[in-house]
Amino acid sequence: MFGSRGWIVFGSVLGLTVGNVTVLQFSASVLMKPIMAEFGWNRGLVSAAVMLGSIFAAVGTPFAGSLIDRHGIRRVTLAAITLFALAIAAMSQTPGVPAVFLIMFGTMGLFSAGQAPLPYAKAIAAAFDRRRGVAMGIAMTGVGLGAAFVPRLTQIYLDRFGWRGAFVAVGVTVFIIAFLAVALFIREAAATPGSGAREALPGLQAREALRNPQFWKLAFVFLCIPIVANGTIVHLVPLLTDRGIPAKQAVVVFSGIGASLIVGRLLCGFLLDRFFGPYVAIAFVVLPAVGVLTLLGSTASTLTMFGAVLVGLGMGAEVDLIAYLQSRYFGLRAFGQIYGYLFAVFTVGTGLGPFMMGAVYDAAHSYRPALLIFLAVLACAAALLLWLPRRYPYPVGSHETSPREQDASRVSIA
After folding, report:
1. Residue 340 above 70 pLDDT?
2. Alpha carbon distance 198, 206 (integer Å)
3. Which of 73, 114, 240, 288 could covalently link to 311 via disulfide, CB atoms 3.0 to 4.6 Å apart?
4. Is residue 398 part of a domain?
5. Distances in Å between the alpha carbon of 211 and those of 202, 208, 308, 312, 410?
6. pLDDT over threshold 50, residue 191
7. Between these two residues, 405 and 385, which has the higher pLDDT value?
8. Could you tell me how far CA 239 lies from the centroid of its own chain?
């Protein structure tokens, strides 16, 4: 289907099974209660650590994107994977001091910036044009596979080694899988560092994108979606156990979200190559909204799981949407840096959502008020998507447009 470029897709799937979102969010959910039990901490503190890790990842992502644009994917990403794996393993030495725990989790988030979807999305966008949506969707299924694989593996590590040993084991797992994936399969098909090819690609410079109103619309949308999706999913195990579902069954349900992430990514990629991207994005805002309504309206275990799956479908599409919509509205010239900014905003949302859920639960002893807020957040995201331009400045085939056509495309985006 993709020829030799299929190895880039395969490597991306493999690397993203242990990507930063998968490890920071899904492992944290499994280890949350054991850490709280040992130190006597509340959910708000552990959720604050997840938020801090996301904030530091957000700070590091644009920097990682700029380095990747200048020095290439493999050199930067292999170094980041090594540092990220070491930071995960170092969490095993966490003392019972909240400030130290927060700092260590933040450091782990900072080093995770280079083992995010960013380098894989850049490699896919450079290698594919007409089938970019499908290729991106398949590649990003790695996050869904990780959502199914990492929680169960973390639970096995937890049962065998305790939460401290689990951090070491997860770190080793990340290093082996991600390092081999990037070293063996990831390459840049369209440009090499210093070749001048980057300047020949159609697209905006990063500073131009930051002055564009469409950038800020997309940024707000990609802040809203993960607030809801991650806020719900990270607290899913506690939410289920609060409703009387046994912990091991809750972890199985939590792992099953990975299947909905995979379906969401494949479906989103398929639709993006056939329909207008913002309309596809609206559909993947409506699905988690229905999921949140289901969680609000029923305490039955079956309906609760169904609602969680719908939220997972929305969570399974946002990373694909960032890369695809960015490449069509801003082009490929500064893909890494622009993606870094958008993914930084997205990463803040992934941390803010769990923190909101934890803080609201500590204050109200219920997740219900947070879920109501999440519905309003999704409504705002859908409204902004309707305001995006109806034509892509960099549609399929824009790699072959002339400089004059590219300049005209730049004007049309404003």
Report:
1. yes
2. 13
3. 288
4. no
5. 18, 5, 37, 33, 12
6. no
7. 385
8. 22
CB neighbour class for 258 (10 Å; exposed up to 12, middle 13-18, buried from 19): buried
Taking the CA atoms of 119, 125, 127 and 133 in sequence, report the sign of the dihedral they define: positive
Number of domains present in the structure of the chain: 1
Q: Quick check: 347 and 58 in contact, CB under 8 A?
A: yes
**Are 90 and 121 a contacting pair, CB within 8 Å?**
no
Here the tokens at position 337 are 């840096």
CATH number, position 154: 1.20.1250.20
Residues 64 and 169: beta-carbon distance below 8 Å: no
C-alpha to C-alpha distance for 182 and 167, rounded to whole angstroms? 22
Average pLDDT over residues 258-263: 75
User: Could you give the angle at the alpha carbon of 222 between the alpha carbons of 217 and 226, nearest 5°?
Assistant: 150
Establish how many alpha carbons lie within 13 A of residue 395's alpha carbon, considering only the half-sphere containing its beta carbon.
Answer: 11
Helix (H, G, I), strand (E, B) or coil at 191: coil
In a domain, 46, yes or no: yes
- Residue written as token pair 């991600």: 178
Whether 326 is covered by a domain: the verdict is yes
| pLDDT confidence of residue 276 | 92
What are the pLDDT digits (tens) for 237-259? 787 777 777 777 676 666 667 67
Concatenated DSSP letters of 148-173: HHHHHHHHHHHHHHHHHHHHHHHHHH
Question: Which tokens belong to 85?
Answer: 């794996």
In this structure, are residues 234 and 25 in contact, taking their beta carbons and an 8 Å threshold?
yes
How far is 105 from 111, CA to CA, in rounded Å? 10
Tokens read off for 92: 């095993």
Name the residue type at position 410: R
Straight-line distance from the first to the last Cα atom of the chain, in angstroms, rounded to the nearest whole number: 36
Which residues fall within 8 angstroms of residue 158, CB to CB, at 6 or more apart? 30, 31, 34, 166
Domain extent for 164: 3-188+206-390
Is residue 399, in this structure, part of any structural domain at all? no
37: pLDDT strictly greater than 90: no
